[in-house]
Prior knowledge:
The structure holds two protein chains of two kinds. By secondary structure, chain A is mostly beta strands. Chain A has strands at 3-5, 10-14, 19-21, 24-26, 32-39, 46-52, 60-61, 64-69, 74-79, 88-96, 106-108, 112-117.
Amino acid sequence: AQKITQTQPGMFVQEKEAVTLDCTYDTSDPSYGLFWYKQPSSGEMIFLIYQGSYDQQNATEGRYSLNFQKARKSANLVISASQLGDSAMYFCAMREASFSGGYNKLIFGAGTRLAVHP
Amino acid sequence: EAQVTQNPRYLITVTGKKLTVTCSQNMNHEYMSWYRQDPGLGLRQIYYSMNVEVTDKGDVPEGYKVSRKEKRNFPLILESPSPNQTSLYFCASGTGAPIYGYTFGSGTRLTVV
Lengths: 118, 113
């Protein structure tokens, strides 16, 4: 069964430093997508970055990059040059891509709360 | 603007009083889904729909109902709310292509007293 594990309930980082948020996943499907979402204190879910299981290169979006290690089944989010506005809850998620015609839901980890200190 | 609209944003109700949380999307997405978010548990899927008149249970469906009579709308119904349904609820929509995640609504914070 598919599963997402985020082992860090909380992290803190100094402003302008880089931080890595861990995510491991488990799936038997060779085709899947990995996602990171940010949830600020206002509550909305903001899509940050996507990595496909067949993508050869790590995904990057501005200050966000995804350190994808397929053999280890890990998809860590790296935030470079942290800003105060990065303080939020971060969720790792996965969606399998079976071609049986069935529904492929997005499953989430428990989340990591990041605090950026000045 | 492409978006998923949920209403209301905040709701306080009493045990047993039926309520409906509305969800509407303007992206012509086939898939729509409801999640609830609880501390330490992440987001868990309640119900989902693959298209009009096609719905199925997610991981935590007990105490909830849904319907999909139109492609754009996917309301969540609590026939007899209980305090353990106090949570943050999200509606989301997406296409069948796995390359995309879902677009989420702004959330509904429900308190059942």
